[in-house]
Amino acid sequence: MKHVKIERRGQTGWVTIDRAEALNALSGDVLRGLLDAWTELAADPAVRLVAVTGAGDRAFCAGADLKERRGMSAAETQSRIELTVRCCDRLARLPKLTVAALNGGAFGGGFEIALACDLVVASRTARFALPESRRGVVASSGALFRAMRALPLNVARELLITGAVLDADRQLGHREGFHIKALRPEDGVVLDLGRLVAKAHVQDRFDYECTDFVVHRPTSFVRRPAPAAQFGAMVRLNRFTTHRTW
Q1: What angle separates helix 153-162 from helix 143-150, to the nearest 10 degrees?
Q2: Helix axis angle, 208-216 relative to 228-243, nearest 10°?
Q3: In whole angstroms, what is the distance from residue 47 CA to residue 55 CA?
Q4: How do residues 220-242 score in pLDDT, each as one tens digit?
Q5: Complete domains list, the chain, with CATH
Q6: Would the pLDDT of 214 be above 80?
Q7: Residues β-bridged to residue 15
C-alpha cells in the first residue's frame, strides 16, 4: 500500500501513515490504503488491537492534502470528502479495539481519524485542531458528533466553531478527554501505548464485541434484535459482571 504501512507485533496491528515529508496528509492514496488496512486487520483473528500512528515526530496527520485538491473539480472534491468519511466510519466500526497514537499534530481529517478510535494516547508534543471553520466549511467526517462524545461540550464547541488549537499542556491541566503522557520527546508515545496494550490484552473475559455494540450503537440495540454473536457476548458479559467483585 502506498504511503500506508502495516506491521503486526504480537496481537497488535500497527498502521502507520507514511508521508512524513507531507506531514502525513490524507491524499487519495493514503485514504485508500487506510481502508485496505482496516479491511485486512478486521479479517485477521490474530489481531486484537489496531494502533494508528503517523511517520516522523512532527505530525500524526495534518488532515486533507490541500495541494492535491487544488486542481480538483467540485465533483472530485466531493468524492474525496466521501472517501474520507468512509475511512473514518470504517475505523469507528472496526470489530477490534482501536487506539490512535498521536506523536505530533492532528488536524482536520487527521483529528477525525483519532476521534474515530476507541482510545487516544498522545505525547506532550501533540496538538489537536479542527480548522475547517476557518475556511468556511465543516468537519464532515464525524467530528461534529465524535468530538462531543470525547471532549467536554464547551471544548468541543470551541474547536468546531473557532478552529482553535488544543495542545497537550491544556489537556494535562484540564483532563479533557484523552490519555496524555508527559513523555520525553525521544520516548515518543510508543512506550506508554505498549503498557496500555498490555492491559487491554489481559482482559480476556471482557468481550469487546459486546462493549462496542452497546457503546456505539445503543439505538440500534433498542430498535432491532441483536445478532446472535452479539447477544451471546452480552450474556457472557452479564454473567461476568454479576459475579465479579469490583
Answers
A1: 150
A2: 100
A3: 21
A4: 333 344 444 444 544 444 444 44
A5: 4-201 (3.90.226.10), 208-243 (no CATH)
A6: no
A7: 6, 52
Beta pairing class for 97-102 and 49-54: parallel
- Please name the amino acid found at residue 71: G
Radius of gyration of the chain (CA): 18
pTM: 0.75
CA distance 122 to 183: 9
What is the reported pLDDT for 69? Answer: 87
Residue 154's Cβ-side half-sphere holds a number of Cα atoms within 13 Å equal to 2
What would the mean pLDDT of 150-156 be, rounded to a whole number?
81
Known catalytic residues?
112, 132
- With a cut of 90, say whether residue 15 has pLDDT above it: yes
Buried b (16+ CB within 10 A) or exposed e, 142-178: bbeebbeebbeeebbebbbeebbebbbeebeeeebbb
Mean pLDDT lowest among 18-22, 54-58, 156-160, 173-177: 173-177
Reply yes or no on whether the pLDDT at 79 is more than 90. yes
